């Protein structure tokens, strides 16, 4: 699963204690109420410490500046990164923290210099809300690899907004610079689009980088939020798709998603039969696992992209496996803004969305437990319209 997408905080930095834009305070919100400078109070769910779980919070969102787009959030996907951040598993986390970087909603207000978005437009925000805009990566449309560090959608220092801490999409609204706002095609179900903003682009980008096209054979390792998107996207690009899984119980689900074949990776005979059959492997597994048997399924000039970041060491890669077939072992992180838009447009053209289960705010903690247990097909999405009710209860 994706890595910490928030820029790490300096150990001595702390979240602002007053309700400055970007701050979060426990309690309820009256969504839409405006403070004196035109900012809006947003209802949200977030964590107040590593062991608080998710509780109702109030967010003070800034008034849109000239380049800003204010978004009334409708849906936000639940990513494994959110769980790691909320539970403090990546360290250096500032609290309170409102997670969420698979955001879909409609524009409510725009700043004076915004001409490409208007109120009522359906839009999305993914894993970043800013970057330096000046380095080679940013100028190349690879903002996710910004040399000065992109600004994550939550838990990151917002350098252009007074150093406040960014707060994410488990909330009723968000304000984001227009350069980091995506256009969501109207033809797609807005709830099922949300996971495309992280899980979708994370798998689309390496598929595109490898120029996957009709006739290619793509292997997908792991069948979670990322893996199921990799299957759908690779199929839509015209590839034959082979899913590698350790679990026989996932075979029917993989075939249902459109996989042409499923290989049980613990079955040595099946792995031997897959020798030299694959062009590109998208490996989404975040637990340590041995890549060498997978390399043997690749053809000459094949590549393996690892997207998951195991917290423990992986078994060593055997260089012999790489040199014998000129195999590339690569990594990849989400995608740039232009590529994310290209992905959304591609999904509209091919009717691709995520398979989702919509949850209410008060189900978030249970959803986290189920996500960790792998008990979701394949992505939870929060209906942010349910945020207000629990917040009122928490006030009592
Ligand atoms: Zn994510
Ligand atoms: Zn940059």
Automatic annotation (TrEMBL):
Keywords: Metal-binding, Oxidoreductase, Zinc. Residues 47-382 form the Enoyl reductase (ER) domain. It catalyses: a primary alcohol + NADP(+) = an aldehyde + NADPH + H(+). Residues 1-40 are annotated as: Disordered. Its cofactor is Zn(2+). InterPro entries: ADH-like_C (IPR013149), ADH-like_N (IPR013154), ADH_Zn_CS (IPR002328), CAD-like (IPR047109), ER (IPR020843), GroES-like_sf (IPR011032), NAD(P)-bd_dom_sf (IPR036291). The keyword Zinc applies. GO terms for molecular function: alcohol dehydrogenase (NADP+) activity; zinc ion binding. Pfam families: ADH_N (PF08240), ADH_zinc_N (PF00107). Its EC number is 1.1.1.2. Residues 20-33 have a biased composition (Polar residues). PANTHER family: ALDEHYDE REDUCTASE. Belongs to the zinc-containing alcohol dehydrogenase family. This is alcohol dehydrogenase (NADP(+)). It comes from Pseudarthrobacter siccitolerans. The lineage of its organism: Bacteria, Bacillati, Actinomycetota, Actinomycetes, Micrococcales.
């Amino acid at each position: 699963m994706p890595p910490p997408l928030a820029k790490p905080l300096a150990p001595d930095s702390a979240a602002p204690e007053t309700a400055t834009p970007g701050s979060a305070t426990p309690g309820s919100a009256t969504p839409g109420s405006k403070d004196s400078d035109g900012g809006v109070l947003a209802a949200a769910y977030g964590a107040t410490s590593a062991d608080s779980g998710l509780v109702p919070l109030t967010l003070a969102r800034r008034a849109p500046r000239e380049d800003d787009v204010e978004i009334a959030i409708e849906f936000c996907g639940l990513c494994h990164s959110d769980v790691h951040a909320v539970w403090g598993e990546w360290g250096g986390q500032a609290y309170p923290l409102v997670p969420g970087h698979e955001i879909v909603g409609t524009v409510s207000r725009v700043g004076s210099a915004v001409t490409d978005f208007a109120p009522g437009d359906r839009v999305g925000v993914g894993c970043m809300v800013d970057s330096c805009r000046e380095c080679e990566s940013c100028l190349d449309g690879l903002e996710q690899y910004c040399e000065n560090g992109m600004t994550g959608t939550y838990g990151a220092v917002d350098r252009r907004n007074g150093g406040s801490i960014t707060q994410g999409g488990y909330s009723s609204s968000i304000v984001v610079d227009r350069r980091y706002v995506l256009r969501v095609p109207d033809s797609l179900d807005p709830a099922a689009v949300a996971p495309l903003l992280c899980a979708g682009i994370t798998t689309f980008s390496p598929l595109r980088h490898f120029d996957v096209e009709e006739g290619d054979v793509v292997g997908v390792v792991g069948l979670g939020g990322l893996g199921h998107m990799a299957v759908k996207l690779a199929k839509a690009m015209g590839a034959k798709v082979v899913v590698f899984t350790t679990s026989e119980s996932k075979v029917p689900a993989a075939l249902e998603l459109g996989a042409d074949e499923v290989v049980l990776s613990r079955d040595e005979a099946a792995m031997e039969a897959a020798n030299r059959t694959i062009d590109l492997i998208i490996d989404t597994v975040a637990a340590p696992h041995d890549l060498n048997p997978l390399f043997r399924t690749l053809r000459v000039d094949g590549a393996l992209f690892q997207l998951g970041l195991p917290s423990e060491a992986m078994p060593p890669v055997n260089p012999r496996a790489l040199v014998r077939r000129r195999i590339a072992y690569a990594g990849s992180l989400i995608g740039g803004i232009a590529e994310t838009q290209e992905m959304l447009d591609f999904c509209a053209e091919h009717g691709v969305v995520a398979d989702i289960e919509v949850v209410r705010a008060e189900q978030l903690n249970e959803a986290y437990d189920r996500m960790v247990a792998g008990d979701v097909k394949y992505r939870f999405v929060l209906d942010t319209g349910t945020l207000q009710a629990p917040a009122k209860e928490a006030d009592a």
